[in-house]
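Appendix B. Raw example, untouched.
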Amino acid sequence: MVPDRLAPLADWLAREGRLIATPTAFVEQVMMRTLAAGIPVWRMYIGLQLIHPQLQAMGYLWRRGEPVQAIARAYGIQFTPAYIGSPLQEVRETGKPVRYRLDALTDKHHAVLHEVRADGGTDYFSLAMQIRRDGPLPVVAFATDANEGFSDADIADLTRLVDLIGAVTEMHIEHSVADTVANTYLGRQVGQRILNGAIRRGDGEEIRAVLWFSDLRDFTGLNERLQPSEVLELLNNYFQLVGNALAAHGGEILKFIGDGVMAYFPAEDALFMPMVTTNALNAARQVIDDIAAANEARAAAGGADPLRFGIGLHVGTVTFGNVGTEDRLDFTVIGSAVNRTSRLEGLTKALGVQVCASADFNENCPRPMKSLGPHRLRGVPKPMEIFTLPD
């Protein structure tokens, strides 16, 4: 009987292999064991289709003696020469394995095959991985630098190897989808809380944080004056600038409310609050500068309607958790501090400033701020001293 070269690898997959946390580590371990089994693989690539707002696919490239590379593929890769006519496209569209002896290439063969040969490859074999998910299947490509290429036994074992690793690969794909959807729609910190099991109605915890609320001015008027596609583009540009500034300074968007952005800067300890309030101010300044630059660009291009906005900043204790029905929940922050932050933003228009911060924020902020005196916030019984940027 012919010994089963993949038996140790199959046993490892059923035990430790399925527990490996990342695709890069998984590919590295699989290929080291493939080499140990006596299969002369020199290069392996696996391309996975994603559900992601910016990326269409993620590829993992292993070459003997080198770390695994994670290669992000942006939307539109399928329309480029790198993909059109490639073995990966051939496998995806036909569903059949392909094999090329690299010493017999001609000018008609795809550039990727010539690149593999130029690097030392002699034989190339690619096939699809069968998984349950709808859509394009993962494609795996192997190459060897052995003079004689792959043997028939090697091809048979590589085909079986792709079947063996399919279930664990599918687990990594599902985890990636869940991670991406949670982070995209809920934010990284909230998304991870949800994935870690914080999904029961009423579950929550009190946190002290810097709260942020920003809102566009005259959004109703913009809707009346502009085409829906123009409004959507303008709104997305605004959200992107706000999101970039928040992310750059440690803030996280909790939700979009119409044309408003609710965000927070977590402060794990009171000792860090001066740093966190400073970060929030830096984010506000970045938004002001970036939107001013965007307005100048719009005006230079003949566009009207510059973006105008206000930002409210407050420090307070809120409850961070789930509200909603038994089967439709929202993870949010609630408490009087949230209401005050929204009211502070609303006051920016009346006071003619872009930032309104509470006395609580000012007390925790080492940066000098300018007092605008006491003012009443709707729904708050006593007047509050309001602060803004000094310049």
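End of appendix B.
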